Amino acid sequence: MSVRAKLFLLLLALSVLPILFLRVNGHFAVKHLTQDLIARSQHTLVAKAKSQMLTMVEDHAELWRRQGLLLEQTLRLQASEVEKALAAQSTPDLSVRLAEAYRKSMSIPVRETVGQLTVFADGRLEASAEVKLPRRFDGREAAWYQLAMRENGAVWTAPVIDPVTRRIGVTLSVPVRDASGQAVGVTAVMAPLAIGGMSSVHTSSLSDRLRTYLVAYDHPDSAVKGLRVIGRTDPQDGGEAPEGGHGKGRRMGMMGLAEPVWLTPDDPQELRNILDDLGKGMSEVRQAELGTKDFIWAYAPVGVKGMALVLSAPKTDVAADAVRASEYIKERVQTQMGQTLVMFLAALAVVGVAALFVSRSFTRPLSDLADMADRLGEGDFSVRVTPSGGREFMELGKVFNEMVPEIEESTRLKQAMVLAREVHQRLIPDEMPALAGLDLAAVSIPCQETGGDSFDVIPAAHDNPDRTALLVGDVTGHGLDAALLMATARAYLRMRVRQPGTPAQVITDVNRFLSLDTGDTGRFMTLFYLEANPRSNIMRWVRAGHDPAILYRAATDDFQELGGPGIPLGVLDDRTFQENSQPMPQCGDVLLIGSDGLWEARGPDGSMFGKERVRAVLREHAPSTAQNILDTLLAAWNDFRGDVPAEDDVTLMVIKTVKTGDA
After folding, report:
1. Per-position DSSP letters for 288-354, written without gaps between them
2. Phi, psi at 524, each rounded to 5°
3. What angle do CA 72, 78, 80 make, to 5 degrees?
């Protein structure tokens, strides 16, 4: 692609991308704002609906409790008047006297129509006009009669469905006594459970599908099936009666159901929460799914044991206003985005023409600069441009000409680093030689592209096939000079090890040669040099400023450090080094020669890896092979550091004595 085309596309992109970004950003901003408004609106509406439903259910549960208190007072007056009627002899007709007693007891205003009746022990029954009883009704078999006689006091009977009206009602009964105090019968009041005239304005503002239920929550099957519905009302004026009833729901009160119905949340935990709240006598509002649809539930005990009032409405209904608002906002956003698209296309055409015109004026100097850059990329560092064009292009040409030498120097440094890495890699054996009586494993991990650590294994030291030279060295610093110094030291060592002598003589001679190279550079090298002879069971070593080797003896479960005097190589050319010797490690022992990059490694908390962790690994994995021990040490080191980069090279050599043929 030509420079002109590239510049044209660049200018076009620089001009169009901000506009495109603003449009896309505006689109997502409006979209997110819409979603946020919808979510907030839904949350507010749901919270408001929950509060209203909880207040409504608590208010009407309280109305039912108050209705119960009025019924209790009515019953007490009725019982008193009935007993007076029984004791009176002025009027021979008992029915007339009881009717008058019923009338007097109703002086307390009761909200709903109340039926009054008295059943005597001999089976006689006297009832008010509101009471509709089936034929051949024997009041002595009624639960309220038997319970009052047994309890010998006023008792409530659980809500039941009237067999004639299908309305749900409660019966409150108490024994009546003659002048001697003997119970001669039971008088009772029967009243329907009404919802107290719940406002259709309030309910319809929440949901047209809001339902009111009278439920039993202490049924034996409630823990599995849920809340057993005793009755249900429809809050809509003129609504049809529920199943099993007749008449208008709001006019007739709470209607009973012909067949058992259960309210069962989809989530068993929500059912347990509701039953737990009602069992504690608490009113509450919750959100639970019913038939995969999300409903809001408000409930409160009504004062009759095991009974509660429940309001239920779909969550989608109470949040309907938010949904309608979201549709309106989405429609407005789509209209706005269509308008901005037209404006964007017009701006794109104008910007494209302008970019094409501007790109032509930049073509010549940029084309020259591009040609020179291509030559520079191919490695021609002699290229220079003749600055031309405007002031900016003149500055650009000048900067280009100044940049070329810097790139050339940087390239040379990179090549030097590559060479240093190759030199460092060549200093490290690719694999351990197979040696009789020895199991070896070693690794060197630089912390940068090139490191100053190395190790080596030289079989047949001093032309003796039973002696093996093993060494781990660490040159100060990193980079090409460190790699070259390590290469020089390695060459001196390999040359000197092939000649007769002791380990002390080898290191003394190498130090003298190396000191001639280091001079006043300040460079030096630490080295741990060991000659192992499994056949004679002797090992000799020289420590030249390096960390002592660590020897774990499995038989006694203790550690020994192979130390000794010695300064780093390349510091003083006339230094005579001393050697140390002792028997070779026994089978099962582990000898570790390493650099301080392992135990001085830092973890995320700043603590050091330490030699104690090294000893713990050697003790635990001593029966393993040298390679397994080495791998375990590296894994522990990596786990300890985590994401913290290594600050120093790590070089490790693990040596184990094995029986001939096991290595």
Report:
1. EEETTEEEEEEEEE-SSTTEEEEEEEEHHHHTHHHHHHHHHHHHHHHHHHHHHHHHHHHHHHHHHHH
2. -150, 175
3. 105
Please tell me the predicted confidence (pLDDT) of residue 339. Answer: 76
Task: Quote the crossing angle between the two packed helices 503-518 and 480-497, to the nearest 10°.
Answer: 150
What would the two tokens of residue 369 be? 């600069």
Start-to-end Cα distance in the chain: 64
DSSP string, 387-447: --SSHHHHHHHHHHHHHHHHHHHHHHHHHHHHHHHHHHHHHS-SS---BTTEEEEEEEE-S
Q: Which of 615, 608, 617, 588 is nearest to 648 (CA)?
A: 608
Six-digit token string for 179: 């002048």
Give residue for tokens 């006598």.
Answer: 281
Q: How far is CA 495 from CA 391, 462, 463, 519, in A?
A: 64, 10, 12, 21
- CA–CA separation, 364 vs 645, rounded Å? 49
145 contacts 162 by C-beta, under 8 angstroms: no
Compute how many other C-beta atoms are within 10 angstroms of the C-beta atom of residue 221. Answer: 10
Cβ distance 320 to 340 under 8 Å?
no
Cross-strand pairs, 263: 227
Q: Give how far Cα 510 sits from Cα of 32, 561, 580, Å.
A: 74, 24, 18
How far is it, in rounded angstroms, from Cα 640 to Cα 646?
A: 11
Exposure string of 426-443, with b = 16+ CB inside 10 Å and e = fewer, is ebbeeebeebbbbbbbbb
What is the tens place of the pLDDT at every residue in 185-232? 999 988 776 544 444 445 666 777 888 888 888 888 888 888 988 777
| C-alpha span between 233 and 254 (Å, rounded) | 6
- Tokens 């205003």 identify what position? 109
Burial of 212 (0-12, 13-18, 19+ CB in 10 A): buried
Per-residue DSSP letter, 576: P
- The answer to which of 47-56, 354-363, 375-384, 645-654 has the lowest mean pLDDT is 354-363
Report the greatest alpha carbon distance in the chain: 150
DSSP 608: B
